[in-house]
Amino acid sequence: MRVIARDGAHEIEIQRSRFLCTVARVADVPAATAVIDRVRRAGPDATHHCTALRIGDPATGAMTARSNDDGEPSGTAGVPMLEVLSRRDLTDVVAVVSRWFGGTKLGAGGLVRAYSTALSETLDRVGELRRVRHRELLLALPHDRAGRLEHDLRNSPYLLREVEHGADVTFTVAVAESRLDDFGGWLAEHTGGAVEALDAGPRDLYLP
């Protein structure tokens, strides 16, 4: 799944109407609602605050998708915004386009283009990353053997996230779920099968 690289905002003007788009990365619907409420409070004089959100569950693949036209003609604002997010396969994102009416009606087609363009240009500016589900694995081994494995891990395709020195040295390694079998083979090869990986649970990483 893809996510926005950062939160951001961008404004366009069409026939004297201002369209200010705000996008934010969110973990769930309550967080998205909080962003929408914040934007509404920041622009109480706006004619409309139209919204779209997509939030995916990496464990099940289920997607929550919602949109709101906020008083614009049905299907001319929130729906095309949601279509932009869907076409880009973005998740964990909420978008709010606030409109200040400039006195000229744009018609249904004009509104669809305006809201879609405001969001598309904003997404282009903030950039995108991939959200990849990983497992964090713990590897513990004696100090006299840890240096070599640390060197091998740092030169491997796997992400060494933490090194903890105690009675043993414990490495926390993030491995993409799709590569768990590969890592098992890699670990056996580099340790002679003497080190067991303990699963510390899932973690989502955001990668270019």
UniProtKB/TrEMBL annotation:
This is YigZ family protein. The lineage of its organism: Bacteria, Bacillati, Actinomycetota, Actinomycetes, Pseudonocardiales. SUPFAM superfamilies: EF-G C-terminal domain-like, Ribosomal protein S5 domain 2-like. Residues 16-123 form the Impact N-terminal domain. Residues 139-193 form the UPF0029 domain. Belongs to the IMPACT family.
